[in-house]
Amino acid sequence: MTRTGTTKGMSRRSFLKMSAGTVAALGAGGLAFAGKENGLLQKADAAEGADDEWVYSYCRNCISPYCGLKIHRRNGVAIGIEGDPDWPLNRGRLCPRGNANLDALYNPNRVKAPMKRTNPEKAVDNDPGWVEITWDEAIDTCVEKLSAIRADDPNKLIVARGFGAIWDDMPMFRPMFGVAFGTATATEINGPLCPFHYGPMVSMGSFTSACDLKRCNYVVRFGASYGGDFTRTNAGADCLYSSTVLLESAFERGMKLFSFDPHAGADTKNYGEWIPTKPGMDLPIVLAMAEVIMCELETYDEEFVKFRSNFPYLIKDDQNYLRDGDGKPMIWDASSGTAIAFDSADLTAPTLEGSFQVNGQTVRPAYDRIKEYVSDFTPEAVEQIADVPADKIRSITEGLVEAAQIGSTIELDGFTFPYRPACVHYGRGATAHKGGLYFMLAVNIVDALIGAIDVPGGMVGGTGFGEFLYPGADGTIEPRTSVTSHASEWIDSTFAYPTQSFDLTEYYPHRHSTPHVAWRSVVDPEKYYMAQDAEAIWIWGANPFMNNVERAQAVAAFKKVSFVLDIAYNFDETSQFADILLAESSNLERTGFCAINAMDFDGGHRACTGINFRSPVVDLVYNTRTGGSVIAEIMNKMGMGPMMNGMFSLMAGVPTGSSITTAGPVEHTFEEMCEILLKANYGEDKTLDDCLHNGTSFVVKELPDKESYNYYYYPGRTTRVAVWDDHLFQSGQRIKSECEKNGITVPGWDMDEYLSYYQPTPRWIEHPEHKADGEYDMFAVNWKVAGRAQAMGGLVESGLLREIQAITDPNIDAIVINRETASRKGLSEGDRVVVESMYGQSLEGTVHLTELIEKSCLGFAGNYGHVAPFMGEYAKRGLNYNQLLSADDGLFDPVSGGMENTAACKISKKA
Amino acid sequence: MTKYGMVIDLKKCVGCNSCTVACKIAHGLGPGLFFSHVKIGEHGDYPNARMTVSPTLCNHCTKAACVDVCPVGATRKRDDGIVVIDDAKCIGCRYCMIACPYDVRIFIEKGATKDGYYGDLGLTDYERATYVYHQPGTVEKCDFCVDRVDEGKLPVCVQTCPGSARVFGDLDDPESEVSQLLLANNATVLLPEAGTGPNVYYL
User: Which of A41, A93, A621 sits opposite B27 (nearest CB)?
Assistant: First the structure.
């Protein structure tokens, strides 16, 4: 059911052809029914009013922000909302966060104007003594402070953002500001608890990975519930279905799902099977799956393993590739009985097992080495470690191999693909561990064994479409840095000593983000070899005090710097440390745009690209501004305008060679830049106002199905997945060498331990929580809830969402414990308890007893319990799970930067 | 003759309560006021336990007990089967609430439209604009978003459902999706023993 794409204009989509008059007539049509029984909003007396219209916008209340909105505006007030039924990505659907947009818009607890603090004492729970100021004063103050720092040493500024209030212009303006300013520290507060990205970067050159729900028949999931806890409503593999819908339709089709998770969610409600799993035990289970395939079944996708992965690459004893005179990795060819270059035309029979002598060196194929390692991880051995029945691991793996239909093909749009409708896939829970990166590499190994990487039915990439990867010099996949989002995580960072970046990119080149490291290096610059002291923090929509762990470290860092600029929607914990608060507009008050191909979690929008535009749906409710607009003004006033203009054209996607461009020395406002982007892409006659009345986007380019799989671009034997991650290994070796050269070790780490995480194949290393003192006999775990996922949209204070959660979901704001465990500990439903973690932190709450959680786990749904005094009351209810955790030196993953998402805990009834 | 009804596929419902949010926003329902919601529960023993969902709303019963007991004819059943309340006629006697076996009707207390979600901070612009359409001292309930239906649109809970668990349509039309679903599945209704003939079905 492939539909070929359109390029420009409104030619093909009838809904987008609608004139303003048509839409207005629809809106008025609703009023014709005024006076009906119980019609409530529709039986308005405002039928005569001039302003009564359904207008268009889009939602940005999650990381997949493409849902079209229709807003019912009457007399200037937004009184109704629905998904745009004609928008191909959500088809009228909206998740709870999307439906709550109006509550966020009119939230009376918002930051309502620019502010400056009068109380110099900064604390998470005091009164900053806010005084309202003009926008001119706010911006001039920022310009003055930032200009002085920039003239002195730009590295003294830390630029940080989160998932924030509105995920619109922030992802672009944060890096633009950081680069133009010249600081080495541009970090993301979101991320260290979701270090999900290096694995797909290695296997698919992609920022994210997904299970191809449209075609998959058998998925083994780790560390995330599907469909319910996030509840995305946009986009499916063919742009017709939402991801939750796509999951449900996959189930109806007969897809089997096995969920290894501490907690059972909606995905195992009817169809899937839940296998209760202790936190952090995902890696040994996946290693056992590899053992079953490699050592017991000895059934694998031979073509993929031999010609589309580096399984056959010969490895020397020092773990480096054996290379030929041209530096090319070599493979033992059984037919010639020699080692030859991986891309030699003479290669016909790559050898996977054995030991060979080449030029006096003993070498073995990567396959052989990996097999030797996993051979210790029999299901029986892993049962002893992970407490998951061996039979279960074995039978699920056997089912996986069978379901993969190795050798089968499928034709899409006249192109023949391997068809592998089975895969192992995962969510953040399995990756946010010390060692979580190795888990991702282990999944790559299993999916490579069954040939299910970036082919129909398997694990697929989702960064964008087209050629966003290419085979590197070693023949293995590398992300195309100009196209792949966050390819910087794959690229080595430049080493510098003394350290220039507070988040220590020098030592964590493949981090997703390491803000937790930054706070420590701000507080103790000497320990982290910092070249400079931190002077200011520029932060936007981010809350390290709630959404990261170790609040005390962030507090110390924010207190230490002399100036904090915060673009804020709520008076959250971050605002408590700001010197200047720049009040941010809501979703529905903004001019903005968003590209529709940025990323993909669940198989959605694989074949759909375009740009959404919007203009304000309502007048400003308070004296706020769009963040991008404020930053653009600051950059212009600091003389960074021309740099911003050029970067904007490049990053936002002004077509190369367009006569309309932001590039040049002219000072543009943010709104002007949006208009230029619109016209450059879709024609000079287009205006932002069109988007309000006609729909949010002018172009949705739907790609043929075949073009949304990497395999199409590099089919057959044209590239290889690096199951032996030489790239990672070389990064470790390079940092080791740099450290030795400078006579130092990686700050905060024992060097040998640090390097043990930079090995080319996954190693099982016990996590900190598995080594806790015996009295800490439980593990704290956390999962997303639909009403809060990613804390976006400024919704944390929504009374509407919190009330609904409170009456419908007994897990919310509770400490969730297995019923049998509770009985053993003498706990009953509703008991007040204290949970104390191995790191000495504690939370007090009320227990909820359930059968839906692993017996050794304490569950915390969502992330609430704000403590900032000026936040709305709803935000203060509940518990902040993160406060139980630690990201101390040596306690996080030294590759991904991922924080340890669990802690060993003990629970006791409150006296 | 049209007879509107709804089929909710419990297997497809993921319990996100997006329907509940959409319903409350569409109808300006303040704190404590619900026309519908989805309660999360569980069934079975560890490790084979499963999450359950219980969506409830007005069943728009064929033999609606609420219609029969209304002394002033405020509650009536339209020709298309939708049970509606005329708040101009409702005297707030609440017989209907007693008669309804499903506990899906709500009484708008006198002060109910004065306080919104944000207490002392006052009503928001949205609350001010929407709460005025509720008459204190009357009974309200889900009306299948009758005005949207009359416009040819779907009830908001149906349109917004992320899992497409809810299907709305004409039960008298054998070709409609609701009819087809009922034909192909063993559907259940709530409290069949009450003899009310609910028109909200569960798969």
Answer: A41
